[in-house]
Amino acid sequence: MKHDGELHTLTGAYALHSLTPAEHEVFSAHLTDCPSCRQEVAEFSATAARLGAAAALPPPPRMKDEVLYGIDSVRQLPPLLPAAGKPMTFTAILRRKAITLTIAAGIAGVAVLGGATLWQNQRADEARQQAETSERRLQDLTAVMAAPDVRTVHGRTTGGATTSVVSSRLQNRAVFIGTGLPDPGEGRTYQLWFDDHGTMRPAGLLTREGATLMQGGIRGASGVGLTVEPAGGSAQPTSRPLMLLALPA
After folding, report:
1. Which of 81, 102, 236, 243 would give a disulfide with 226, using CB separation of 3.0 to 4.6 Å?
2. Where exactly are the structural domains of the chain?
3. Among the listed residues 148, 167, 154, 140, the one whose alpha carbon sits nearest the alpha carbon of residue 248
4. Rounded to an integer, what is the distance from CA 115 to the centroid of its chain?
5. Contact indicator for 141, 161 with CB cutoff of 8 Å
6. pLDDT in tens for each of the 249 residues of the chain?
């Protein structure tokens, strides 16, 4: 465990749920008295949400074959070794990785351009609509996670998956973040709920890990729940909750 003076370095690990239970407990207590760390955690969480919620366009069918062909036809760079007695700097390592990634990106870019000519106009329109929807979702996620009154609670499901709920009373919205959730099974889905002091209100389906903006406002809600429901969701929970987290007042 770090000394008190080093707690400020744990904001990124805390936002990514990478602390040990002991570190998490100590750092959570530290957050109550450190506005700068709370701000950093909110910013790190917003960035993580953007990365986790980013939507990618489906690749053209021939992309895999063309990338594999490119790998066989492009000569690999020899290892870059530092001069004798001179250690390799972090900047040099990043530069080296950037060269390799640029080559890989070039191969992928050629494949994408070749396959893009085969896309129909309808598919392009669907892709644009998907991008616009994703951008709106990212803006909503960021607004909640960067709100001045943002509050975060953490918990685990009955199966051990890590969960967090980020909420803002000013925004009247909440974001659910799940890590380690197993496949719910064929014909089943995860469903989020607002607990309105004993009455469960549907708050959206969870189709993947990462950050999900919950549907509906948090006003009147005392907690958040997660269940496994039939595909398409249910009007009321049909199974025992995997998780129940109390929302901060």
Report:
1. 243
2. 63-118, 147-249
3. 167
4. 29
5. no
6. 445 557 777 777 787 777 788 888 888 888 888 888 888 888 777 776 666 555 445 666 666 666 666 665 655 555 555 555 555 554 554 455 555 555 555 555 544 445 555 555 666 666 667 666 666 777 888 888 888 899 999 999 999 999 999 999 999 999 999 989 999 999 999 999 999 999 999 999 987 778 889 999 999 999 999 999 999 999 999 999 999 999 987
Q: CA 205, CA 188: separation in Å to the nearest integer?
A: 11
Distance CA 29, CA 37 (A): 11
Decide: pTM greater than 0.85. Answer: no
3-state SS string over the chain?
Answer: CCCHHHHHHHHHHHHCCCCCHHHHHHHHHHHCCCHHHHHHHHHHHHHHHHHHHCCCCCCCCCHHHHHHHHHHHCCCCCCCCCCCCCCCCHHHHHHHHHHHHHHHHHHHHHHHHHHHCCCCHHHHHHHHHHHHHHHHHHHHHHHHHCCCCCEEEEEECCCCCEEEEEEECCCCEEEEEEECCCCCCCCEEEEEEEEECCEEEEEEEECCCEEEECCCCCCCCCEEEEEEEECCCCCCCCCCCCEEEECCC
**Cα atoms in the Cβ-side hemisphere of radius 13 Å centred on 197:** 3
